[in-house]
Amino acid sequence: MAEGTHREVRAVHEGILRRQSARESSARTYARALPIVPVRARGLTIEGADGRRYLDCLSGAGTLALGHNHPVVLEAVRKVLDSGAPLSVLDLATPVKDRFTTELFRTLPPGLADRARVQFCGPAGTDAVEAALKLVRAATGRTGILAFTGAYHGMTAGALAVSGSAGDVQVARLPYPQDHRCPFGIGGPRGAELAARWTESLLDDPKSGVPLPAGMILEPVQGEGGVLPAPDSWLCRMRRLTADRSIPLIADEIQTGVGRTGAFWAVDHSGITPDVMVLSKAIGGSLPLAVIVYRDDLDVWQPGAHAGTFRGNQLAMAAGTATLAYVRENGLATRAADLGSRMLARLADSLGAFACVGEVRGRGLMIGIELVEPESDAAAPGGRPVPGGCPPPVVHPSPPSDHPMTPGSLEPALSPRPAAPQLAAAVQRECLQRGLIVELGGRHSAVVRLLPPLTISDEQAAAVLDRLTDAVAAVARNHEQHGPHYLRQPSPAQRVG
């Protein structure tokens, strides 16, 4: 590209970013850390207005199961456009909707598909969460909800109430099992056992202050919470606890569904059948679509009890049908399990030597790397110094523990190092400079997250891991050489405005 042309392209790119900063809400998020202007995309690759190409491991926060502009999705959308069919029809029956519902029911966990009902909600996942909460309250006549620390279920009032960042709400909060930052300081099957005991005690103790709830909502893998896969045995325990007490179990599969974790639905790993499933993101094939699927005996709603103008998005249903069928017919869930396991193993090998890497974890193509303070006396949220030094970095390249949760000796684990959100942000910046888009998450935004499309090739996966490893190495090196000053440097988004 000629120098003059390059300057013109750069000026267009920076002008768009400046106008976005001046015009859009301060609530904008991804645009701050990722100052790019996408103009073309295909599969894993995005091309920006500045001519740069990026490997996209954000995938619309997990929306793009097949990557950008997959041919089967484009073909499905074009067929609807060319047919002259209406594009938005409220909740009227259409051939497009019928095909979507048929394909969706074909994928549901055994025990649910044969007696399921589906409610088409507003176009965002948070709308479906609201519908699920309303449904179980109507069906049980109760009001309370059980939810988990670290959860993320959306941005509307009810969804925020059951998320980990909730404020003054009428929701009982339960411990979610994890290894690296186990709330009981133990981790593994023992930590999961204590979390389950806590839940059981809360429900059965008449003085717990928590009356029998309308439902329990959980994520089989907490995504925004830091890529925390729940042990399969713990999920089975939650299923038994709720079933024995006639508490509807709501599985939020908005980010984990459609093959992401190595099974079509993340609950399939444990073999449980929830009473309600909340679905969005990938089910729309990159277009806005959200539904809840639930047991027919919960269907006590009166006509109009839950509605929404844009619940009849025909293009999203066509794109969703194509995506669901492609994932199912091409075994992409199995592919995600295999490739994800290999990616985790390689990350464990390449990042395990860095003191700033606390843990590598994930399931399928839902991967997280937690960044921690490398110094033993560092003070930061999420951990405490360990007298006499720090524990070594932890890597978990295997799926979540499925060991039976049985009583036994409960020995405390070493305290993890403090979470390092500034280091994670630095890794994200270094990744972007190398043409790799990643997301941050976790309790303290200290987890670098990978959500590549299920269609990613082995060669592309290797390129992603090379760039990520190089970015972590650069951050570790610069932090060692320059200390906190390096981390205080403004991000590209801040420099643009």
Give a structural overview.
With 497 residues, this protein is of the alpha/beta class. The protein is built from 15 helices and 18 strands. The strands form 4 sheets. A 7-stranded mixed sheet has the order 4-12-11-10-7-5-6. It has a 5-stranded mixed sheet with strand order 15-13-14-18-17. Strands 1-2-3-16 form a 4-stranded mixed sheet. The two termini are 27 Å apart.
Strands, helices and their partners?
Elements: H1 3-23, H2 30-33, E1 38-42, E2 45-48, E3 53-56, H3 59-62, H4 71-83, H5 95-107, E4 116-120, H6 125-140, E5 145-148, H7 157-161, E6 171-174, H8 188-204, E7 215-218, E8 221-222, E9 228-229, H9 232-244, E10 249-252, E11 276-279, E12 291-295, H10 314-329, H11 332-351, E13 357-363, E14 366-371, E15 394-395, H12 421-433, E16 436-437, E17 439-441, E18 447-450, H13 458-482, H14 484-487, H15 492-496
Parallel strand pairs: 3-16, 5-6, 5-7, 7-10, 10-11, 13-15
Antiparallel strand pairs: 1-2, 2-3, 4-12, 8-9, 11-12, 13-14, 14-18, 17-18
Helix pairs in contact: 4-10, 5-10, 8-9, 11-13, 12-13
Enzyme class: transferase
Protein name: Diaminobutyrate--2-oxoglutarate transaminase
EC number: 2.6.1.76
